[in-house]
Amino acid sequence: MAPMNRFWIFGLAFLLLASPLVQVARCQVESDVVSETAEEGSDVGIVGDDVQDFGDGSFPSAPGIDTITVFPKNIAKLVTAGEETELLVGVKNDGESSLNIIAVRASVHLPFDHNYLVQNLTVQGFNNASVPASAQATFPYLFAVSKFLQAGTFDLVGTIVYEIDEHPYQNTFYNGTIEVVEAGGFLSMESVFLVTLGVALLVLLGLWIHGQIQHLSKKTKRAPKVEIGTRATDASIDEWLQGTAYTQNLSSKLKKKK
Fold first, then answer.
1. What is each CA distance from 213 to 72, 182, 204, 216, in whole angstroms?
2. In which domain of life is the source organism classified (predicted)?
3. For the residues 107-112, what does the mean pLDDT come to?
4. pTM for this structure?
């Protein structure tokens, strides 16, 4: 019985010790299956921190490759903090070889100091995405700025990384401004201030124009006529001409009429 008991104890201990290894192996197999399914079922994926580092943007751009950016249904380029924003990257291949799209990435900078990096946005990878020669294609890119980012104007720099004949290249598809707004608000505080200031200036201008019109209307009113009696005028003239030849002639004429 003693050897049999030792065997059962050893077997039980082996099972207890080996069970984590079995679980780890099973997890590895399941993760491999999931990754293969994701690669086969989707050509677009979010690239994490453990993927290839594309460096600091030192790749050159290939000749004959042009890019364009469109913010669908978002002409004002409004980006709500903490929420996803979509843009479309158009690639036109006028080269002689087909290109393979590797990833799209972007970053946010201060508009007055482009060297100051505000945030690195998500790197979006593409699998089995290619653009043949003399063809064009469009690729979506979803990004979200930090929900703690203050509302205002920022610069967005987006690049698309691709390969031609196993050589890496990249193009800057967007290098311009975006307007970050707070969640639930259509206008930033700066925009509200500018609108309020504009309305106040218009009101002051209207009051000034109204005052000028009233001032001009008062000037154009005619002053009332003042009738001056002839007696007072004659008396003043007589007093001024008294003792002159004119008064003497006038008195002589009056005597003749009598």
1. 49, 44, 14, 5
2. Eukaryota
3. 93
4. 0.53
